[in-house]
Amino acid sequence: QVQLVESGGGLVQPGGSLRLSCAASGFTFSNYAMSWYRQVPGTVHNLVSTITTTGVSTTYLNSVKGRFTISRDNAKSTVYLQMNDLKPEDTATYYCNARTGTNEYWGQGTQVTVSS
Predict the structure, then answer these.
(1) DSSP secondary structure string, the chain?
(2) pLDDT truncated to tens, each residue of the chain (116 aa)?
């Protein structure tokens, strides 16, 4: 069955770094654009970053530009989010998303907490 399994979240001090991973299975990963969303309780999912199927094109939420980097390894069916210079406002649950024109899948989320 389809699975998206995120990992790499945790507690980090402001200015620190984390690398999130999302391992995919059960579908043809290379056919899907991959995204990271984040959600704070009581709010909607907020799109953080997207990478195209080949990895050639990426987009970012303005507030994370220059600090976050999305990448993918199609051979490993994994997408990554390198997060540097983390700020308290980056605290959220981060979700992996896979999308084509007809299908969409979500991971279960990984918590990122930025606090001193």
Answers:
(1) --EEEEE--EEE-TT--EEEEEEEESS-GGGSEEEEEEE-TTS--EEEEEE-TTSS-EEE-GGGTTTEEEEEETTTTEEEEEE-S--GGG-EEEEEEEE-SS-EEE---EEEEE--
(2) 999 999 999 999 999 999 999 999 999 999 999 999 999 999 999 999 999 999 999 999 999 999 999 999 999 999 999 999 999 999 999 999 999 988 999 999 999 999 99
